[in-house]
Prior knowledge:
Layout: H1 3-11, E1 28-32, E2 35-38, E3 43-46, H2 49-52, H3 61-73, H4 85-97, E4 104-109, H5 112-127, E5 131-135, H6 144-149, H7 154-157, E6 167-170, H8 188-201, E7 208-213, H9 229-240, E8 243-247, E9 271-274, E10 285-290, H10 291-294, H11 310-325, H12 328-349, E11 353-359, E12 362-370, E13 375-376, H13 378-390, E14 393-394, E15 396-398, E16 402-405, H14 413-431
Parallel strand pairs: 3-14, 5-6, 5-7, 7-8, 8-9
Antiparallel strand pairs: 1-2, 2-3, 4-10, 9-10, 11-12, 12-13, 12-16, 15-16
Helix pairs in contact: 3-11, 4-11, 12-14, 13-14
Cofactor: pyridoxal 5'-phosphate
Protein name: 4-aminobutyrate aminotransferase
Keywords: Aminotransferase, Pyridoxal phosphate, Transferase
Amino acid sequence: MKRSQExxxxxSHYFAPAGRIPYYPLVIDHAHGSTLTDVDGNEYLDLLTxxxxxxxxxxxxxxxxxxxxxxxxxxxYTPAYMYHEPLVHLxxxxxxxxxxxxxxxxxxxxxxxxxxxxxxxxxxxxxxxPYIISFVNAYHxxxxxxxxxxxxxxxxxxxxxxxxxxxxxxxxxDSYRGMYGSAEPNTVEEYLAxxxxxxxxxxxxxxxxxxxxxxxxxxxxLLQPVDxxxxxxxxxxxxxxxxxCVDDTQQGLGRTGTWCSxxxxxxxxxxxxxxxxxxxxxxxxxxxGRKEIMESLDRPAHIFTTGANPVCCAAAxxxxxxxxxxxxxxxxTRKGKIAHDRMEHWRERFDxxxxxxxxxxxxxxxxxxxxxxxxxxxxxxxxxxxxxYEKGVVMIAFAGSVLRFQPPLTITDEELNKALDVIEETLTxxxxxRLADYEVDGQGW
Length: 445
């Protein structure tokens, strides 16, 4: 028996199934750059980057050195009571890279989930209003607050209710499919209509604290909004004194080619959530916002014993410096264009490729059974991912039918083209009917 199979069998006796979404029997031993190596010595190109938590790739030397140097000095002392230098420098840097020509403040946590909980707290605390509006198919995390703000998976909600009160969800302005099962996208006004009706009938706008967006709806399928929607939504928020907030846990920090993904729309958010890739894989999150909002709560309204750990802060500072030194924002844009241009040919060539969308190196390929009806094909998407895995490329399908293409921003052009070659070969095999015998039951969301 392979070492990977032995370990997976052993783990099944101890690890609770709620903690993983199953895809492949991949037990990773080590990883460098864009390459994963399993415990049996097999190598894979990584197009998932630990759910976009490793934008700078695996084990970049300057970041590893910064972590080691900080560990040798001090592993932890809680910022809940005391101070340390890496936090000071990181707090300044986070305020500098977040858009908005106004004074900002930041607070740190451990993961995007708790940063979204912070957003809920500060939005309610500052406005004195109870309600939060987010989107259908939004994913904001796994704590009670972030689950309550999410609307993507029944399995996240079953058996744990009641969830937190005060959350409402509206349709995401999908530029590929429309609302309520329509194959055609709606207009900006049509997408805004459910929110306007809500505010006019059963949710008083003066009681809404915040609207929270994902610029690309990540786990919802990397959905891209129709042009003009976010601008109109922010204007509506301003009219009613509602905070306009962005959860950039997945799309921020260079993933789309900017520090904050809302920069693509030239809009300034009131609050921004960062997480995942902030500390190159170590647990760290941040909420950055307008000074007056972030100073609206009294101590100790949002503290964690191990939040803003000095090792994590040192890793984050080294990560942001590494991104600047290697021009990774521009590289994300450049490499994303290479991939997107190649994928556009797939839409023309393959019957199963219905849509290609995204920004920078955050791209989704929507696999369909019928191009005109835009019918999702989850089976085909999982088969394509499994076949690519057999060929040494790791990616997943989510949101029913979408191939998630989020490699490290540091991926080389040669590796990028190799990965695209493998996916293209696999799509050809599917088109030609050579993958009909694949079994993929039990995989995915």
